[in-house]
């Protein structure tokens, strides 16, 4: 059996002679018998590993622990008599070729048979093993008593819980060989601890965080042949929080952007200068992105004017509580009062311009005593008033021009307008 230094030397030569760092090929290395934990750990980018027609007999359980990018492994025609699935359980392998190895028929290699049976690829390998009579039999026909896949059964209560509460999950596993039980909680934020006794286990989660809503929790049973798991999704109910509310920005439309978290989905209500904001096709709430319990959107305004300047407050509410935030919005200056640079408008300007508000779940006011008006209607009436003023001013200006023209003609008449008298001059007596 070769030494660790000799194996490391072969591995180094393998990488150095490769054209690409993520692809390595070894052939006809009869002295290469063992791959230990630290032989390939430095090659974290390794994707393809091929060792063929060599003397490989043993692979350590953690040999590829740090080679998480491995996708293709080819150990064709080596000296492997056994191989554990623990070598590869953390890898996302698309190919594992083991043809031409003198495997011994045992429960230790039944996982290879199971892998072949569950592979989505129609191509199968002609794998054999030596039984107690030293007879070569196809791995596909291998039957080993008391050697099968395990099972996991997760007995969970209703996993819809309120933020800050606690919950306990129970799980049982079964199989022969007897499987190990462990919990896969992913990136669970909430504090948790587990207890395991033989084939029974429990997981207690305390002070549950709203950040864990939607996360999956799994109970896993694993033995020599393979693994099984049973999973549940955690749903956390919590009061709304407005995590983001900013002044309006202009794109295709004006938008007051916001982000709200809450579960169940919060109802949203807008207020304008203290009055409920009734939404319309000109002013409405848009939700652009939903991420489980988080909602990103904006209050969209089409062509707002100075009539829409003011304070906008958002209220988010569900059965567990509510949150509210307010911002000031300035779209344009008031004609004759503000040039657009001073956001401090006289309070009297806002009289009679309270606006209506929207709630995603309820767009009516019903019994609410807060005054409500429609900004879109006010804006329309304002535009009509402006047009009327412009027309009247034009007519008056035109009339003045005609009068001035006629006066000029009366004083310097060259067209025989003898009967045209604008001013009558009274003669002075004596």
Automatic annotation (TrEMBL):
It comes from the Eukaryota. GO terms for biological process: cell surface receptor protein tyrosine kinase signaling pathway. Pfam families: I-set (PF07679), LRR_8 (PF13855), LRRCT_2 (PF16920). It comes from Equus caballus (Horse). Residues 150-235 form the Ig-like domain. The chain crosses the membrane at residues 384-407. InterPro entries: Cys-rich_flank_reg_C (IPR000483), Ig-like_dom (IPR007110), Ig-like_dom_sf (IPR036179), Ig-like_fold (IPR013783), Ig_I-set (IPR013098), Ig_sub (IPR003599), Ig_sub2 (IPR003598), Leu-rich_rpt (IPR001611). This is Neurotrophic receptor tyrosine kinase 2. SUPFAM superfamilies: Immunoglobulin (SSF48726), L domain-like (SSF52058). One of its GO terms (molecular function) is neurotrophin receptor activity. CDD domains: IgI_TrkB_d5. The lineage of its organism: Eukaryota, Metazoa, Chordata, Craniata, Vertebrata.
